Amino acid sequence: MRYINHRYFIHFCHPTSTFFSIIPFPSSTHNSNPNFPEMGSRRSFLRSWSSPLFLFVVVVALAASSADGSRAPRVPCYFIFGDSLYDSGNNNNLNTSAKVNYSPYGIDLPAGPTGRFSNGQTTADAIAIDLLISFGYAGEILGFKDFIPPFASNPDDRQILVGVNYASGSAGILVESGKQGGDNVDLSQQLRNHELTVSRIVEILGSKVAAFEYLGQCLYICDSGNNDYINNYILPQSTAIRNQYNPDQFAALLITQYSAQIIRLYELGARKVALAGISNIGCTPSLIATLGTNGAPCVNSVNQLVVPFNTRLKSLISQLKLSYPDAKFAYLDSVRVGTLVGAVFRFAAFRIRATSCCQVSTVTGLCLPNTVPCSQRPSYLFWDAFHPTELANQLAAPLFFPAIQRIL
């Protein structure tokens, strides 16, 4: 299944436009969102053409436009772990408020609501399948032709040889994270689910040796830790854990647990592992509305809170490389990528918005069921009060890919 949302092509690229005319000159007199101030002059805009951001746009667009879609996937299989940023439907049948198998979620997917916490593809999807760059070029990242199925959908033997998505909305590294909203599949349980998949692959391929040789060629990606802060450490009712652990101690607790989980993944055959850091969660509409910013674009105190986690995660990856030389590990810099995605939005459109595209619940921050979302979705960074729009996810994927490519 090749999925390209041509609505984005129309929005950003007139059929007669050249690449260099796609990005409009920003106006110093118009600024629709103080979180993303416009540049002050055309002169400063022209200077920006030599910036790394502009070079990224050129390289990605040229690389994407040259893809013919005929080659085989870069890896034979792709396994996805994490939280709602990657969840593709694993929470649909759980007793939880953290599920989104209803309209308007999935409004830009042919299948409609699937359980993805966005209007369309997640970043994990965009990495896997055909990717639409906002400038109208289509290209491949990993080269898969279909979405990776969620574990909860009971994928068949053919499907699990291509990969499984275990990610679960509200889930974290710690078992208790996110449980105030109901059930979720925490990372340790995701790994137990993966054990079941590995056992099936052993049966399919006839031996553990054959299975582990195959699994060693796959890509494993994990985005965990967000909910250990959003739905645990910074909750108003979590005073006990904040009294027990200062921010650095809490980060150390998470990384200790995360290290054991990633080592378990290695023991199950993983040899190409990409781990995403925590993004600037203080820039989400929910936390901005709840905590306030004192005039800043984001809740800086929350963004600073997660810095020790990302620092320790980078150190963990360095340690894993030394301890397991037969494996490859990559750090996905979510802070940098999120910053660049915001900058691309600023370059590519006259108006951008960092508020939610849909009407959200004041309790969960998720879209209210069966409401009508914004019509200009390519102008929004956030779909609901926590999660990016499809276009933001599709822009993030090629920014993550250079780090992923080094471990393939």
UniProtKB/TrEMBL annotation:
<dbReference type="GO" id="GO:0016788">
    <property type="term" value="F:hydrolase activity, acting on ester bonds"/>
</dbReference>
<keyword id="KW-0472">Membrane</keyword>
<dbReference type="InterPro" id="IPR035669">
    <property type="entry name" value="SGNH_plant_lipase-like"/>
</dbReference>
<keyword id="KW-0443">Lipid metabolism</keyword>
<keyword id="KW-0812">Transmembrane</keyword>
<dbReference type="InterPro" id="IPR001087">
    <property type="entry name" value="GDSL"/>
</dbReference>
<protein>
    <recommendedName>
        <fullName>GDSL esterase/lipase</fullName>
    </recommendedName>
</protein>
<keyword id="KW-0442">Lipid degradation</keyword>
<keyword id="KW-0378">Hydrolase</keyword>
<keyword id="KW-1133">Transmembrane helix</keyword>
<feature type="transmembrane region" description="Helical">
    <location>
        <begin position="49"/>
        <end position="67"/>
    </location>
</feature>
<dbReference type="GO" id="GO:0005576">
    <property type="term" value="C:extracellular region"/>
</dbReference>
<keyword id="KW-0964">Secreted</keyword>
<dbReference type="Pfam" id="PF00657">
    <property type="entry name" value="Lipase_GDSL"/>
</dbReference>
<dbReference type="InterPro" id="IPR036514">
    <property type="entry name" value="SGNH_hydro_sf"/>
</dbReference>
<dbReference type="InterPro" id="IPR051238">
    <property type="entry name" value="GDSL_esterase/lipase"/>
</dbReference>
<dbReference type="GO" id="GO:0016042">
    <property type="term" value="P:lipid catabolic process"/>
</dbReference>
<comment type="similarity">
    <text>Belongs to the 'GDSL' lipolytic enzyme family.</text>
</comment>
<keyword id="KW-0732">Signal</keyword>
